[in-house]
């Protein structure tokens, strides 16, 4: 029996969304939500001195909204996921998928060698790239 090991020839750099939406820890969650809506992003990266310190996703904004009047007074630092899992630009797509699956996340910040955010890979980005590959090979 012949077994072939197939590899998708893509890296995170090929499919990530750039530039990432970056906000400060002290930014009001309403402003963060408006920016995400305006730019059609599903997440915002929270930075201090160009270093990634957190991520805010649509789910986090729902949490803030569920707090009612108190929720709209929250800051990015209050709802962000601190020290998010990240990948580098040359990370293989299959590795990024494994990381997302293992961590149960849909948004994966991409950082450079210095830890500065350069993009985000969302589950949607991966799905779109795989659909393009299927279309390319079978259509």
Describe this structure in words.
This protein is α/β, with parallel strands linked by helices and 139 residues long. The chain has one domain (12-138): CBS-domain. Helices cover 40% and strands 22% of the residues. The protein contains 6 helices and 7 strands, in the order αβαββααββαββα. Strands 1-2-3-4 form a 4-stranded mixed beta sheet. A 3-stranded mixed beta sheet has the order 5-6-7. Strand 6 (107-111) and strand 7 (117-122) form a beta hairpin. The longest helix has 16 residues, at 123-138. The protein starts with 11 loop residues before the first helix and ends with a helix.
Top keywords for this entry?
139 residues, alpha/beta, CBS-domain, four-stranded mixed β-sheet, three-stranded mixed β-sheet, 6 helices, 40% helix, 22% strand, CBS_dom_sf, CBS_dom, transferase
Per CATH, the class reads Alpha Beta
- Main sheet: strand order: 1-2-3-4
Structural class: alpha/beta
CATH topology name, in short, is CBS-domain
> First CA to last CA: what distance?
29 Å
Helix content: 25-40%
Q: What does the overall shape look like? A: elongated
What is the radius of gyration? 17 Å
The count of domains is 1
Helix segment count?
Answer: 6
**Total count of strands:** 7
**Residue-averaged pLDDT:** 92
Give a short account of the largest sheet: 4 strands, mixed
Quaternary structure state of the chains depicted? single chain
Protein name: Histidine kinase
Keywords: CBS domain, Kinase, Transferase
GO molecular function, one term: kinase activity
InterPro entries: CBS_dom (IPR000644), CBS_dom_sf (IPR046342), Diverse_CBS-Domain (IPR051257)
